[in-house]
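Is this the right way to post structure tokens for a design question? Let me know if I should format differently. Anyway, here goes:
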């Protein structure tokens, strides 16, 4: 897990349908939150993860996932694939206001389908593999011959 005590969130792609996140909220962040929004406001608010998707050069809000208060990691199942995304870790106050605590790294969620680009052409290098095997076989036979000659002498 994270070794220092700064508030942060890390986002990792598992596959097109699953993102894993782990996070930590520092004691200093909790104290600051309670000072700003009132005593015990951190404990009376609800923890939430907000997923944001790329929309060209901006990001738009996607899913909001309420999480357990004691959670320090979560699996997210995004509704969209083949797109960049990030997550905000925050709290929802009793009045419904979202307060951001940390923002994750941006990830690229892979497609869950074949590529639409059918113009991609791959080079056939299988003949090089056969050539390499032939060269290696000749080298092994040559080395074995040298060894057997040196043992006879």
């Amino acid at each position: 897990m994270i070794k220092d005590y700064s508030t942060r969130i890390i986002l990792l792609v598992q596959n097109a349908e699953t993102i894993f996140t782990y996070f930590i909220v520092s004691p200093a962040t909790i104290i600051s939150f309670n000072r700003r929004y009132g005593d015990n406001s951190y404990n009376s608010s609800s923890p939430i993860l907000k997923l944001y998707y790329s929309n060209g050069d901006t990001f738009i809000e996607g899913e909001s996932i309420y999480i357990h208060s004691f959670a320090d990691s979560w699996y997210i199942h995004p509704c969209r694939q083949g797109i960049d995304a990030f997550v905000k870790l925050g709290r929802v106050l009793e009045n419904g206001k979202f307060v951001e605590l940390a923002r994750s790294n941006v990830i690229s969620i892979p497609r869950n389908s074949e590529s639409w680009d059918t113009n991609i052409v791959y080079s056939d290098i299988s003949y090089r593999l056969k050539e390499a095997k032939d060269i290696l076989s000749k080298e092994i036979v040559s080395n074995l011959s040298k060894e057997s000659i040196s043992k006879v002498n």
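Format looks fine. Someone answered above. Worth noting: Residues 23 and 122 are 41 Å apart (CA to CA). The mean pLDDT is 87.
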